Amino acid sequence: MKKIAGLFVTLLLVFGLLAGCVSQQGAGGNSNSSKDGKDEAGGGDGKIKIAVVPKLIGIPYFNASEKGAIQAGKDLGVEVIYTGPTEADAAQQVKVIEDLISQDVDVIAVAPNDAAALSPVLQKAKDKGIIVMDWDTPADQSLVELSVHQIDDEAYGRHIAKSLVEQMGTEEGEIAILTGGLAAANLNSWIDAAKKELEENYPGIKLVTDKIATDEKQQVAYQKTLDLIKSYPNLKGIMAFSTPAPLGAAQAIQEKGLQDKIAVVGTALPKDSAPFLEDGSLDVAILWEPDKLGYLTVALAKDLVDGKKPENGQNIDGVGEVEVWEDGKTVIMGPPTDFTKDNAKDYDF
């Protein structure tokens, strides 16, 4: 009986020790975990996970932005997930963001095709503890921690309008406006500023029709420009917003040999623009360096995870000094660049 009693006591002690170990491990795991069980520094491997979502993937502008974002990830030691829809479609973007939420990333930085359509899914991300930013195009400002802009929208739109009038060589005549998607907030801001510049300072300029959507596709812009040429034989100028649109417009002008009759300016990349700038079918491409925009977005996202907010005049390695507005949320990368036949070949994007 004594042996049995001794064995029973021993077993109780063993089970007690095991229970204590399990309890301590559980407590330790809970106290060290953060959002949804991830390490405080980011993913399970300790890396911060930053998702950058463009309007769409596969066009040169967003390819250049991707290059900058990925480079920033390498330089700053964070994991960058650059992913987006294959078309400029808000519903597809929502699906992409839903997937990123399930991956439990630390930051989602998005360039919305339609800001209102994305608000519910961005609210869901925010409720999950994910930092929400926008870049390239504004989202619902009540949902974002930072709004990263390439340039000052007002100044940019006005500059494009003044450039068109300069290239037309006259302050009178009919013009048209091509855009990417009708709901793109950044494009609409630029167009509104351009129209304001014309109304205030160039009353002789007449807009023949409302802005024309081209769905972020060069071929659509090309066809729409051919339609404009046919419908408005006195057309003297075209402003094209979204990087594929100026190329499509220039392609149509080139095909019809109207370089000396219709001026075209727009928001295009220098490398793509070079063949059209060379023969004058595109007069000026006005943009910024999208690889730097991608880099800046990731750098600011990492700082947010680290608890740092940007400051006005702050120098960002690989980008330069940025402007931060009084709201503490809006970040301006810098002024635009005019790409012409003389300087376009100096840029590798």
UniProtKB/TrEMBL annotation:
This is Periplasmic binding protein domain-containing protein. GO terms for molecular function: carbohydrate binding. Residues 50-309 form the Periplasmic binding protein domain. Residues 1-19 form the signal peptide. Belongs to the bacterial solute-binding protein 2 family. PANTHER family: ABC TRANSPORTER PERIPLASMIC-BINDING PROTEIN YPHF, D-XYLOSE-BINDING PERIPLASMIC PROTEIN. GO terms for cellular component: outer membrane-bounded periplasmic space. It is found in: Cell envelope. Keywords: Signal.
